[in-house]
Design brief:
- By secondary structure, the protein is mostly helical.
- Helix content is about 40%, strand content about 10%.
- The chain contains 2 helices and 2 strands, in the order βαβα.
- A two-stranded parallel sheet has the order 1-2.
- β1, α1 and β2 form a beta-alpha-beta unit.
Length: about 80
């Protein structure tokens, strides 16, 4: 994961795959790794829905980055 190299990064996962993402975080030795969660599906979502997902992703990512910068990290996804 990029954070191990000192590079700030944000993972983005659709709601349907949150449990898989949490499992991968544990397998990779980063239990509690926080990531952004967006709606599902995205492949068949209309442009308006994709735009809403993008806005939500930006808001969640901002919150996560600021939380991490302040040292008040949390666990897993922002829901």
């Amino acid at each position: 994961m990029a954070e191990r190299e000192g590079v700030p990064a944000i993972g983005v996962m659709t709601q349907r795959f949150v449990s898989a993402a949490e499992l991968m975080c544990r397998v990779l030795g980063m239990p509690g790794y926080a990531f952004v969660t967006i709606g599902h599906p995205i492949s068949s979502a209309p442009n308006e829905q994709l735009a809403a997902y993008a806005r939500d992703t930006i808001a969640q990512a901002r919150e996560l980055l600021l939380r991490e910068a302040a040292g008040t990290g949390g666990s897993n996804s922002l829901r």
